Queue: 2 jobs
Job 1
Amino acid sequence: MSREGSLDAQRRRRLERFAAQFRVKPGSTVALAKDFDPSFKAGVKKKKEGVALLEEGVRLLAEYQARLAAQDTWGVLVVLQALDAAGKDGTIRHVMSGVNPQGVAVRSFKVPSAEELDHDYLWRYARRLPARGQIGIFNRSHYEEVLVVRVHPENLERQKLPRASKQGDVWKRRYREINDWERYLTDNGFRIVKLFLNISREEQRVRFLRRIDLPDHNWKFSEADVKERARWDDYQSAFSEALSHTSTKWAPWHVIPADRKWFARIGAAAVLVHTLMEIDPHFPPVTKRQRQALLEVKQSLEAQAPKGTAPDPFEQQHRDGKDGAADRSGEPVAGARGEEVDLSTAPSAP
Ligand code: AMP
Ligand code: MG
């Protein structure tokens, strides 16, 4: 293996260990409050250290996203779930800050419309899936169908289901349907990255107060949020159940500690980068024949150079070393190989 290849393999193993700490083992039974600490820092001691790690993660994401788009074979769906004020929006903003906007689509799901209620419950999510080569982000997702709908059963009433579909254990059936749907997507080239941003009750209280205290943040606060907070325990058990039943081999859940915003961001970035590393997308190879055809076009373009101009200015600059050619060719730019900090070398829990 080349030196670079073995560096990549090393980085992948470290990132795998870092991301694995957040994964819900398929088949395990989760009790959120007992099993996951919202203030866990996975050995990253200071925010400053975390910020450097995030920068590295953002760079890696941009690199992989470019290859994912070029290969046009796999799509990635990021499912983001959390209680109010856990930082979904900020996580999306920071983690995706370096990627090409053309390659990413964020979809937010609110209370379903009349048209949406006229369809099966997965319909509106299926319509907003990412295409191959894309990273799609669900800001809330099909999981609301076993979370808010479960905590507030009047939502289920609005779904106009025939009587037989409301009999028996509706939630168990939905877990199975969701697992089947996600398996179908995975089998057909769409990887699913499921992130639950885990915030504590006390941290939510503080963030709500902040939204009230800062006039610029008032718009983010709604009285409905306080009503939902009153159902904290019901949400904790709905989440615990959902995590227990829908963390699968093909689409496992990750519980990201979210009491520190900066940590939630590196946790989310690490899991996403790790999935992209597993996919390992490549720029499409060029056949000998395609290369030959390109060289013929090159000759013809060079023949069109105005008098006194280099036939191929790009090639000339590249040869003279004046150009950031690596940047243009899609090769990683300086830093992207981890000269400064390396997300994958972040310490992991004992
Ligand atoms: P926000 O994300 O703060 O803009 O709020 C969106 C609201 O839509 C939340 O209160 C969710 O609980 C609600 N919501 C999202 N999906 C569903 C659904 N399938 N059924 C009912 N309410 C939903
Ligand atoms: Mg809200």
Note: The first strand starts at residue 75 and ends at 82.
Job 2
Amino acid sequence: MSFHAIAIDGPAASGKSTLARALAEKLGIVMVNSGAMYRAVTWKILKENIDPSDTAAVVALLEKLEISCGQTGSLSTIFIDGEDPSPFLREPSINANVSAVSAILQVRDRLVALQRDYLKSTHVVMEGRDIGSVVFPTTPFKIYLDADPSERDKRRAKDGEVDSVAQRDAADSSRQTAPLKVADGAAFLDTSHSSIEGVIDAAIAILAKQGFPLPQAAELEPEPTKQMRWIYWLGWMSFGAAYRSLFGLRIIGAENLILSGPVLVASNHQSFLDPPLIGNLYKTEMVFFARKTLFKGFGKWLYPQWNAIPIDQDKPDMSSMKTVIRMLKEGWRVLVFPEGARTLDGEIGEAAPGVGMIAAKAGVPIQPVRIEGADKALPRGSGKISLARITVKVGKPILLSPEEFKSYSNKEGYTALTERIMTAIRAL
Ligand code: DC
């Protein structure tokens, strides 16, 4: 499994962190602030009363340090010997010494290895000075940000920071190892006269050009209030209102939702309440599966109005699978319950490889979702509603490159992809 790295480099106060954070949120990936890592090591050096210019002493300390990097939500974290230095990282003493510390070869080697480790388990947008040139030189997704020095000074002053931006830039650009520079293949973006939104839009356009598998360009826009057909809207509105009042419907992770373009939504299945529950996460129509036997009498008219595709639950139903694969390719959002049937005991059961096959063949983003409490609100085998609280947890989308989709394109691959999706659901 390979992950994507977006490299954002540039001088101090050029807007790298703001852009990287916004991209991480929009794309549902992790933002790594590599400068914070150099700052954290500087903090420890100063705390131990070591002179940052005494390379031998710095290296001796470095060898003893336990540095652990991780993430909370979409942001990177760093602990040194079990301590979180983040409250101290913008102090004047750190601003004044971090360039000297980051010029030490052994410091860079240690931190670059930790930076590369992120890519073993997640897509990242990483910002710094040498991300496109040294940390991830082969990534095709590189942006170099810059802004007028006077503008950058203003930004730092506005943040209330004591920081000699020009001095730090000079040191960072002129050092021997991994100096700040425009990496090969990086797109240059000047942020001097742009709003934050303007910079984000420009960066997304650059990434699209560089071939980053954006969930879909259009979905990065705020959700358009598309009209629902009235009969779909009637169901959507009535179920939504009922769920909110009866079950205190709570949604966690709504910021992870991919709001337009094709998405395969994969959820555990607890109750008949589930499909409208998922449908209510969105303000535009989506496609569902429904048991073939429901398409009788009035149901024969109603279910198609609610974009339900009939599925035979007794045997693998290739024709309905083909229908949803086609609809995903046409840009629809489709809900699939990988387990096929509702849970008997509230636990998440085994999944059939169908969802992996649909995902691999359609090649669209996958949104893992976990429903909790619907099995108590309307248990399987009972017609009685209870006022149990329902929670829907939305996970970060699983975004795969075309090569990764290809690697899942046989029976074992479908099973592996299904397992990956189920693991993401269970982790929520
Ligand atoms: O991005 P920042 O201003 O927080 O970075 C602080 C310092 O860390 C910067 O002056 C140089 C150093 N740094 C580096 O050498 N390489 C990186 N990839 C990131 C930061």
Note: The chain has two domains: 5-220, 230-426.
